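Render this sequence as a predicted structure.
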Amino acid sequence: MAEKDVLMEVKNLVTRFYTEDGVVKALEGVNFNLYKGETLALVGETGCGKSVTALSILRLLAISGKTLEGEALFYDDEMKEKLGITTDGPVDLFKLTKKQMLKVRGFTMSLITQDPMTSLNPVYTVGEQIVEVIKLHKGLSDKESKKQALKLIEEVELTPPEDIFIKYPHQLSGGQRQRIVISISLAAEPALVFADEPTTALDVTIQATVLGLLQQLKEEFNSSLILITHNLGIVAETSDRIGVMYAGSVVELVDKYTLFKRPLHPYSQGLIASVPKISEKKETLNFIPGNVPNLIHPPSGCRFHPRCTYATDICKKKAPELQSVENDDHLVACWNVKQVIKDLDKQGGASG
């Protein structure tokens, strides 16, 4: 495989939420990297920290949330030029000022949320909202901004663009609104787009269309995409690599083909095995025993150990680090991965 350029490295990300019930330990040492031009999917059960990871990097956490540790190193010369940074090396997003982050959001990074109705301002036309982003980050005139906005509307396959431009969000369907959100997120041609469950609020019949459009535009604008989802079917269709998250950390990181063929973390195995297969007829579905832990009082050591059939004493005492297994491109956080590999080899190399 040809060597790829790294766009972002996330190291030891630790985020907490301070609530009346206690401190929610939402992220506990999240680590992953992202290559230029790739689609990286973050998958896992609800509450595992997928969305919090994106919001932490974008520094858009709710007032109760705070990132205590970690780095988000960004390798992008255009961003450095925009911010007037002349030093060599990557930029740590957590060391930027609030004013600098305002310039970064939209220009270098953007976010597509799962509910387009709450993303769009109901008192402005969709055209005005696209124009605002173009003017802010590209500094174009009203006339040129409108011209680009109309082009973007056409590129997300909404026609005629002149009619869509003057409509308010409530006058559009859910699928149309999500396409407008996509056009806004790509208006300044960002290097990185976060898509947080971008098809959750859409009818099944138009989910594939919107995802295909997002992938097409990502390639056209030469952006990288972090896709946040719990839907493994979507992941299989759209991603290049997959980061499996559990209870606030990444437990496995590898290309999608390897993950589905040879998952090496016990949680990844359970997650994939729980997906129903059309070729199999079963009265009961596979499932992972136990429950997702309470992150106010998470388990000690590896947070998956209460649900894991491979758990040993060290799993209860110390959290494993994400390390290379079998090859440099396959990372797993598990103390007993060697035993997992032995069992897989006995079964013929595949899980579930």
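Summary. The first strand starts at residue 6 and ends at 19. The two ends are 28 Å apart (CA to CA).
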